[in-house]
Design brief:
Radius of gyration: 18 Å
Strand content: 5-15%
Order of helices and strands: HHEE
Number of helices: 2
Largest sheet: 2 strands, antiparallel
Strand order of the largest sheet: 1-2
Distance between the termini: 16 Å
Number of domains: 1
Shape: elongated
Helix content: 55-70%
Structural class: mainly alpha
């Protein structure tokens, strides 16, 4: 399970890169700084919250996680 600081760091890096992409595409399509800024800000507020909740949910799911067994040097998979 990830700690909350790691999840927040991943969220910030992901949102930063997608913000640049969204701003660039919005600017190309609208050629208007106000509309581009509004679209980018609103979308990123909503998307950041959704992404954080999504990551926290998946950090509790055991499916597909490979972990090191404490009693053995072999990896164990959860179903």
């Amino acid at each position: 399970m990830e700690n909350k600081k790691r999840t927040l760091a991943k969220t910030a890096i992901y949102r930063g890169s997608t913000t640049i992409l969204l701003f660039t595409l919005s600017w190309i399509l609208t050629n208007n700084v106000y509309e581009t800024s509004l679209i980018t800000i609103l979308f990123n507020i909503v998307a950041t919250v959704i992404y954080y909740v999504h990551e926290r949910f998946w950090s509790t799911v055991k499916w597909g996680i490979i972990s090191m067994s404490k009693n053995s040097s072999e990896f164990s998979k959860t179903a």
